[in-house]
Design a protein that fits this description.
The protein has about 425 residues and is of the alpha/beta class. It has 3 domains: about 80 residues, Arc Repressor Mutant, subunit A (Orthogonal Bundle); about 150 residues, 2-Layer Sandwich (Nucleotidyltransferase, domain 5); about 170 residues, Nucleotidyltransferase, domain 5. Helices cover about 45% and strands about 20% of the residues. It comes from Microbacterium kribbense. It holds the Pfam family ROK.
Length: about 425
């Protein structure tokens, strides 16, 4: 049986296993020359040469420049063919659509952004997103789409790729997002909560450490992505990290999800906007009050900017949000024991005014051992973060999870990914 037929029928021979490993070693930078591959795998020179030539013949690897000599002839480096295909990323937010294209090593090569209300429903929203993606594809190089990743601002059943009762996404419950993209691109698709994409983007900045990390996004809503030893922890059904709907003590405020007393209803961006309007109607002045009197909209971003500029109302709103968010994060710290907490989202733009309150509550309420080596930092925070995270998700699923299923075909297919 040839290597290709063995792979097609799922036979995990030593030859197949070592070939897969070599491709992934070069892809991740673990080994970049034939001698390095031999040292790390224990394979003989002839076997390494055979496997590398097979990977080059299949189009996964190519020869690069000569590396550094250790006394003899300089070895030629190997490169993963990141240009063989491309990844489509669609990051949907409550009030925007971001789409992008990325190479197989995760580099974002093109992007578009459009303001959009997710409440317009799945049909209209996905039509708009697919139109934006088609525009990028038409303007770029003609390379096949190997994978698609989609982020949405609500709970997702990761196995089915469908949102589950998303509070701010009317009409999306149970909608088969995966199928819509698979039909359009004829490529495998993964759908996840948007904050998980942001957590994966943060992981990309920390490639040398199997990090335990909590990414807490405080924007219009509130959510958290959990990384355990560098892997997303989604829980049994994909609901892990949904701290926006934990109960705030003594609160009787109705949340957008229909429940009472949720953290998001007290500390999320939309709640801060609500409270700002109430305070201004009660006579509060300052920059927020002046902006409202001029007819300018109050947004989570404008509240954060107002806090940075010293507006008393904005500072009080930001600090209260941070205290409540800090209490919820402290509970996660005691249970999850992360090494890093990353805070992102539009409200976090208030910087140290926001972070200082979170740090104080976390350190006050968490166990000393759980905070001994803990750092609490702001997100890198540029607009490409969800696109980078989406590329990371697709790459992880393609090469860490499903690689053996489609390797012989030279590129992933829907049937190859879904089969076991």
């Amino acid at each position: 049986m040839t290597t290709e037929s063995a792979l097609r029928f799922g036979a995990q021979t030593d030859e197949v296993t070592s070939l897969l490993r070599i491709v992934n070693m070069v892809r991740t930078g673990e080994a970049t020359t034939r001698p390095e591959i031999g040292r790390l795998t224990g394979l003989g020179r002839g076997v390494v040469t055979q496997r590398v030539e097979a990977a080059i013949g299949m189009g996964f690897l190519e020869d690069g420049d000569f590396g550094r000599s250790s006394g003899g002839r300089a070895p030629r480096t190997l490169r993963f063919r990141a240009d063989r295909g491309q990844i489509v990323v669609c990051a949907l937010g409550a009030l925007h659509i971001r789409v992008g294209l990325a190479s197989l090593d995760g580099e974002v090569t093109a992007k578009l952004h459009q303001e959009w209300d997710i409440g317009r429903g799945p049909a209209e929203t996905l039509d708009a997103a697919l139109g934006m993606i088609d525009e990028l594809l038409a303007a770029g190089e003609d390379r096949p789409v190997w994978a698609v990743s989609v982020g949405v601002p609500g709970p997702v059943d990761f196995e089915s790729g469908s949102p589950v009762a998303p509070p701010i996404m009317p009409g999306w419950n149970g909608f088969d997002i995966r199928r819509r993209f698979e039909q359009h691109f004829d490529a495998p698709v993964w759908v996840d909560n948007d904050v998980n994409l942001l957590a994966l983007a943060e992981r990309a900045h920390r490639k040398d450490e199997p990090v335990d990390l909590i990414y807490c996004k405080v924007g219009s809503g509130i959510g958290a992505g959990l990384l355990s030893r560098g892997r997303i922890h989604r829980g049994a059904n994909g609901a892990a990290g949904d701290i926006g709907h934990v109960r705030v003590r003594d609160s009787d405020v109705v949340c957008r999800c229909g429940k009472v007393g949720c953290l998001e209803a007290e500390a999320g961006g939309w709640a801060m906007v609500r409270d700002a309007h109430r305070a201004i109607e009660a006579g509060a002045s300052g920059t927020l009050g002046a902006a409202a009197s001029r007819g300018e909209p109050i947004t989570p971003e404008s509240i954060s900017v107002g806090a940075m500029d010293g507006d008393a109302l904005a500072i009080s709103l930001v600090q209260r949000s941070a205290r409540l968010v800090g209490e919820a994060i402290a509970a996660l710290v005691n249970m999850f024991n992360p090494g890093v907490i990353v805070v992102g989202g539009s409200v976090s733009a208030a910087g140290e005014i926001f972070l200082a309150e979170i740090r104080q509550r976390v350190y006050e309420l968490s166990l000393p051992l759980a905070t001994r080596d803990l750092s609490i930092v702001r997100s890198f925070g540029d607009e490409q973060q969800p696109l980078r995270g989406g590329a990371e998700l697709a790459i992880e699923q393609l090469f860490d999870t499903t690689f053996p299923r489609w390797f012989a075909d030279g590129q992933p297919t829907i049937d190859g990914i879904r089969s076991s």
